[in-house]
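Thread: quick sanity check before group meeting

JM: Hey all, I'm pulling together slides for Thursday and realized we never actually wrote out the predicted structure for the chain we discussed last week. Dropping the sequence here so it's in one place. If anyone has concerns about the input, flag it before I start.
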Amino acid sequence: MEQLPRRTNLASETAATLKEWINNGVLRDVLPGELQLKARLCVGRDTLRLGLKLLADEGWISPAVKGQQRRIHIPCNSTPPPNRTAPLLPVTFLSPHPVEARVTLLELEETQVRLAEQGRNLRFVAPDIFHLNNPDSRLERLVRENPSAAWILYAASEPMQRWFEKRKIPTLIYGSPFPDVTLPFVVSDWEAAAFHAGIQLVRQGHRIIGAMEYRERFPGVLAQERGLQRALDTVSERGRLLRFADDRTPESVARALDSAFNLSTRPTALVLTYASQLLTCYSWFVAKGIRVPGDLSVISLVNDSWLNELYPSVCYYRPDTKHMARSIAQRVLELVDTGRTTRKSIRIPLDYVPGASIGPAAQSAAVLAEQLSNTR
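JM (edit): ok, ran it. Output follows.
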């Protein structure tokens, strides 16, 4: 655990803390920038610079050179690094979910293995702060109570992304950043997958497509909408994209379906944006006597192993798990080693898995309305 400097002669204590971190392997090769060190040490700029000057004078770090990071050196006359008994700082995965999905865990597997080789852990934290409009004070406490070599943000709100960016904390976004957020990220290319899904439906004559989405307007959701709308824009007669939101509960999914099929102009196809929607949708279809794909076409932008157990089989998109795992691990290890990443952010294509859930545009709205009314 990173030991914070005691409040006696702060410059000397700051230098002593940095020596401890270097000896314990918390800092290696290159010293992080001043903004990052200030945040991790909880000291002011002047105190930090005095502490760094003491280190440079004793030969622990290279002298300051404008535009270059300081190199770390351990003087020959210093106490040799002790045998490492305490574990190195972990990397913290910050998520709104206490239990992560199987696909997410697979995509983090290489990161866990590579960190374990260094003697580090990948720690999962799920605080109840993702809904807050101003999470600053909670994040301050969270970061202080969970010293970390780097952070991975999953499904983080815009205020949370901007908080980590402003404080220069080594951070990777597992997903899409909000506009103008410059943190590095790795994400599946949801816009390209949604465009491909929309094209499959347009070719079958679908002109009114419903998108079942989580109510929060995350960048990934917006990317999916852009992809579907681009596909609809390819037809001469203007297509319509209808958005139906839920809160990830079966009841809210059912309410969204009720809303969709009570419209005078109903969607003839549904695009689902997370796997658990499928179970609720299929059971709702059975209750209403709706056939897939005879009455309604369905395509899922995400997958899970149990999708293969559904009948009829669902058309869905499969992430390139190996590519994702490798890309995440490379960037996290670089953040841990240097406090920053030189690798470009990346959007990774998904693979289309055809199924039997897409067919020609459904029968007339009048016939389907009569069918639905008979179930009420």
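AS: nice. Residues 80-86 have pLDDT under 50 and may be disordered. The CA atoms of residues 69 and 241 lie 50 Å apart.
JM: adding both to the slides.
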